[in-house]
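User: I'll paste a sequence; please echo it back and then give the predicted structure.

Assistant: Echoing your sequence first, then the prediction.
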Amino acid sequence: MLKNKLALLDALNKLCNNTLMETLGIEFTDISENEVVARMPVKPKVHQPNGVLHGGASVALAESVGSAGTLMLTDGKDVQIRGIEISANHVKSVKNGYVYAKGKMVHKGRTIQLWHIDILNEKEELISFIKLTTITLRT
């Protein structure tokens, strides 16, 4: 599955074209069997009115990472991945730079998957702690 990591990252990043992920500047940067990493720039377009990272942008980043990880579990054919539940605890604010979402698989079911995603700043300090449940729908 991860024989060509760079090609897989390139394919994931191409899937972001003309989507919310492109709007937010999300870029997948690393991938392994049970972990996906993406980054997002923190600048005014992802700020809340008081000038810090909007929690909703963090949640969108986390769901993007978990959904991409779930897609990795399939051959990508005849499936649709959906987030069905997400919860986030935001513990620190960020004004600029990048945040990194590191998603780890907790449960690898055929239909239901559970992800733990940490959003970290450039100093690797915890910004948000997120739990995501995805479902794989066969089409």
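The chain has one domain: 5-138. Strands lie at 27-31, 35-42, 79-90, 97-108, 112-120, 126-138.
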